[in-house]
Amino acid sequence: MSFSIQVNGRPFGAEPRAGQCLRTYLRERGWFGVKKGCDAGDCGACTAHVDGEPVHSCLYPAVRAEGQSVTTVEGLARKDGELHPVQQKFLDAQGFQCGFCTAGFLMTTAALEEEKGAAHDDGKLDDLPRAFKGNICRCTGYRAIEDAVHGVRHTERPCAGQAVGKSLGAPAGPQVVTGAARYTFDVEVPGLLHMKLLRSPHPHARIVGIDTAAALRVPGVHAVLTHRDAPATLYSSARHEHPTEDPDDTRVLDETVRYVGQRVAAVVADSEQAAEEGCRRIEVTYEQLPYVTDPEEAMRAGAPVIHAGKGPEERIARVGNNVAGEVHGEIGSVDDGFAEAAVVYEETFRTQRVQHASLETHGCVAYFEPKEDGTGERLTVRSSTQTPFLTRRALCALYGLPEDEVRVVAGRVGGGFGGKQEMLTEDIVVLAALGLRRPVKLEYTRAEQFFGATTRHPFTIGIKLGARADGTLTAIQMRVVSNTGAYGNHGPAVMFHSVGESFAVYRAPHKKVDAFSVYTNGVPAGAFRGYGLGQVTFAVESAMDEMARRLDMDPLAFREKNIIGPGDHMVSPIGEEEDLHIASYGLAQCLSIVRNAIAEDRSTEDVPEGWLTGQGTAMAMIATGPPGGHYADATVTLLTDGTYDIAVGTAEFGNGTTTVHKQITAGALNTTVDRIAIRQSDTDVVRHDTGAFGSAGTVVAGKAVLLAAESLAGRLRTFAARHTGVARHLCTLGTDAIDCAGRTVTLKELHEAAHAAGAQKEITAEGHWGGSPRSVAFNAQWFRIAVDPDTGEMKILRSVHAADAGKVMNPLQCRGQIEGGVAQALGATLFETVRLDERGRVTTAAFRRYRLPQYADVPRTEVHFMETTDAIGPLGAKSMSESPFNPVAPAFANALYDATGIRFTEMPVTRDRVWLAMDRQAVARAEAAAWPTAGVQPGAGSGIRAD
Fold first, then answer.
1. Ranges 3-12, 115-124, 297-306, 533-542: which has the least confidence
2. What is the H or E stretch that residue 71 is in?
3. pTM for this entry
4. Sorting pLDDT into bands at 50, 70 and 90, what band is 945?
5. Is 400 exposed, middle or buried (0-12, 13-18, 19+ CB in 10 A)?
6. CB 682 within 8 Å of CB 410
7. Distance CA 945, CA 359 (A)
8. Dihedral, CA atoms, 142, 148, 154, 158, nearest 10 degrees?
């Protein structure tokens, strides 16, 4: 059979493999703009045009494209290099963050633009919810995409030295919209082998036999790895600056499996197909063991012990009770506080498992490169990670390698949200690469992302509040149980963080907490946006709303009466963190924004007849960095051509740190961002960087960049003064030169002079920041919603978010972080949940069964920035990546209560749950009307509890 296809105007004649989809056919020929996000036609990241028609190339058989013209995002631009109008609009509006989904939106939009006005135009461009029903974005919240389609420009071009505070576009924007940005697997590695994993079908079992002979006979299979090939070393997959924060409870491959989906063996082969066939032919004999999936049951005497044989030396708190970590503390006496209260409220709240659902799945490639000195090879690991340096440290410890023998580098990362603060693939891939001395790749499928990666921790929070009649809180008590799953990666740390700022934001003389991180036989939980605060904030802010109503107080006024103020100590029963300060205070402003929104709101005017409406508020506080130190090194250098280079370790995955680092440097050096290059997320470029997590990209890495840039500015002025004989204070840095009392010395000349004088140290400078002291950021969310009592359908009429981010370095990008955080949190509030069956098996291992927010689900959120300047953060900035997520669920739940009179205590509040609760309420009201002596009072505010 002859095969012919045109791709972006170039002919290809290689026949597709049997059953090969168009996506893999295109990527194998270097067209990396088509992305793998789902392999099921759910996300649209793989969209390409076949004879002008947009198709999901992961579903489209490559053989069907025979004789046709295929266009990918790389071929969208004009032949002279000019961007396609749609590409330019996405660039001007910054209609992307991580950018992994962007090609799909571009290709869909471009196709609809082409058919606009044609006979077959069905008006989709005027109905974007319908147009984008096949495209998913996890980062933006869709507002930026809508603006891009409509041609709204948001980017600015500031003058020299004026970049900070301006809405600059992302430096990688042109690469993102043209498909040239290189993500983890957008590279060609000669001789690449592929890995696939055999996973456990049992929730708890011991491997008593494993036969790999048949697998090794599969043509193309090079190796089968089992627990016999893996080091016995125990470690944690979690990545922290201090590894002692996590239990050492994990092996690369273990002879005991503790959840359905745990890896049992790895097959390495010439192709993914051969590796998959090898996995099918492995014969494993298991001894099944008792299992437990409920954390309360897991803590009881007699429950199956999940990590038998381990203990305090592995930093497991109580192995016999399956307690990975726990914290207990009391300030004052809560018994006394409740005794003096006029009103006491007590309730239990529950939050569910949520998947990060970053569109780029976990994975890495390990290969060998020649050393620069020619003395042999060293190992390079290219990974989709938020923590290149910590991952290198862990790999070296695990395999006994010196750090200079290993390089870890992240390309552009297609979303993280905390999920890539783990080492989930690098350990097993490096084991294979070291053994075979060949390049090895492992790329998770979307299903593996659900059952083989991590989730947000499910929480059960028992909360009790007491208050005087005037609304003054007297006591706060919580019992928190966090389900960490089969392994304790991040478990104790998430538990600890969850009861810190959530307690400290409110003043009360008596506070008590008992919190537990508990092992169960389920998919492991891990780091997730908010790091535990979102779960506990749902309980705290729901309880505060309920208390206000029981006190007959305005919920905003009740909060304002009890929140901490600018000079207060942040008091939590887990102890005061000495390096944590209120270095700027915008919480009162946040609540004022909400009050103003309520006062002028007119969003109920178009609500259908019979629908119920309500409004609700919630607020949150978060530390602007993790405790215990978060380190960053940065170097800024003057280059030969008179431009600058930044070297910094933190990764870029749509969080905007690359843009902010260039803005900071441009301000310090009085230049423009186009004269600054940046190298990042590579263990070769700087000494160390803890990683892109804990909202540290601006306040930690940005601080290191600022210190380096300011130091270089001083050095350049000093050297210019010495070079010209002019007093230092008369030397002024400009865009591309230094003015020395009227004499202009170009930066290129200055570089040449420094080299000629052997003064290279004068044209480079380093900065370091250790992440301490830390400040706090504040957020408040308000919703007005409508609910149809006949169907349970809910509509958000208005969404307002107030953010205290200190000095906002880039309003456009910061707004995008907030909108994306609100959208992600709405998904967790309304429908997202990772469901497990009675054996702990994930049953929602695909986007279409999991239900991510799509364009039609997400409202435009009005974002307001508070006018504060932080005394600690770089140039007055604070972090704003995680915190917008935290107040969203309780604000929505409070609005739902206001509309229906039903207190929803469990997330998510799905439409069917709402309808069932309202149906029960209607029955209760009918019974009360028929039997008034029963004491059931109908009406909104009756406080009916929804279980």
1. 115-124
2. strand 69-71
3. 0.96
4. low
5. exposed
6. yes
7. 37
8. 120
Q: How far is residue 718's CA from residue 160's CA, in Å, rounded to a whole number?
A: 21
> CA 31 to CA 799: how far, in whole Å?
40
632-638 and 644-648 strand pairing: antiparallel
Over pLDDT 90: what percentage of the chain? 92
- Element of type H or E holding 922: helix 911-930
How many CB atoms are closer than 10 A to CB 749?
15
Cα–Cα dist 573/477, whole Å: 9
Handedness of CA 97, 99, 105, 110 (dihedral sign): positive
Contacts of 583 (CB under 8 A, 6+ apart): 773, 775, 776, 870, 871, 872, 873
Q: Which structure tokens are listed for 938?
A: 């109908």
Distance spanning both ends of the chain, measured CA to CA: 62
Residue 812, both tokens: 């456009």
* Structure confidence at residue 941 (pLDDT): 41
Going by their DSSP bridges, the two strands 440-443 and 193-199 should be labelled as parallel
pLDDT at 825 over 50: yes
- List b or e across 785-823, with b for residues whose CB sees 16 or more CB atoms inside 10 angstroms: bbbbbeebebebbbbbbbbbbbbbbbbbbbbbbbbbbbb
Residue 92's identity, in one-letter code, is D
Q: Which two tokens stand for residue 646?
A: 């930044």
> What is the mean predicted confidence (pLDDT) over 325-349?
98
Q: How far is CA 664 from CA 166, 670, 701, in A?
A: 11, 10, 11
Spell 882-911 as b/e; 16+ CB within 10 A means b.
Answer: bbbbbbbbbbbbbbbbbbbbbbbbbbbbbb
CA gap 11, 718 in Å, rounded: 58
**Looking at 386-509, which runs of residues are DSSP E strands?**
406-409, 440-443, 459-467, 473-485
DSSP 729-773: GGEEE-SSEEEETTEEEEHHHHHHHHHHTT-GGGGEEEEEE---S
Residue 243 tokens, joined: 């590894």
Question: Do 259 and 840 meet the contact criterion of CB atoms below 8 Å apart?
Answer: yes
Angle between helices 555-562 and 533-550 (to 10 degrees): 110
Element (H, E) at 658: helix 657-669
**Residue-wise over 154-165: b if at least 16 C-beta within 10 A, else e?**
beeebebbebbb
Local structure of 857: helix, strand or coil? helix
Segment 425-454 mean pLDDT: 98
Q: Can you tell me the distance from the alpha carbon of 651 to that of 655, in angstroms, rounded to the nearest whole number? A: 9
Please choose, from the candidates 804, 799, 764, 770, the residue with its C-alpha nearest in 3D space to the C-alpha of residue 783: 799
Relative to beta strand 794-804, strand 861-865 is parallel
- Say what the pLDDT of residue 1 is: 60
Q: For the segment 367-417, what is each residue's pLDDT rounded down to a tens digit?
A: 999 988 888 899 999 999 999 999 999 999 999 999 999 999 999 999 999
For β-strands 776-787 and 794-804, DSSP reports them as antiparallel
Instruction: Write phi, then psi, for 298 (nearest 5 degrees).
Output: -65, -30
- Cβ(668)–Cβ(707) below 8 Å: no
Residue 691 burial (CB < 10 Å; 0-12/13-18/19+)? buried
Q: What is the dihedral of CA 225, 230, 234, 236, to 10 degrees?
A: -40
55-75 burial: b if 16+ Cβ within 10 Å, else e: bbbbebebbebeeeebbbbbb
**626 or 514, higher pLDDT:** 514
Q: Which residue has the higher pLDDT, 227 or 123?
A: 227
* Residue ranges with strand state E in 270-360: 283-288, 323-331, 343-351
How does residue 26 score in pLDDT terms, banded at 50, 70 and 90?
very high
Six-digit token string for 783: 């919703």
Q: Which amino acid is at 814?
A: C
Q: Compute the Cα dihedral for 855, 861, 867, 868 and give only its sign.
A: negative
CA angle 524, 425, 686 (to 5 degrees): 110
Identify the helix (H) or strand (E) that includes residue 516: strand 510-519
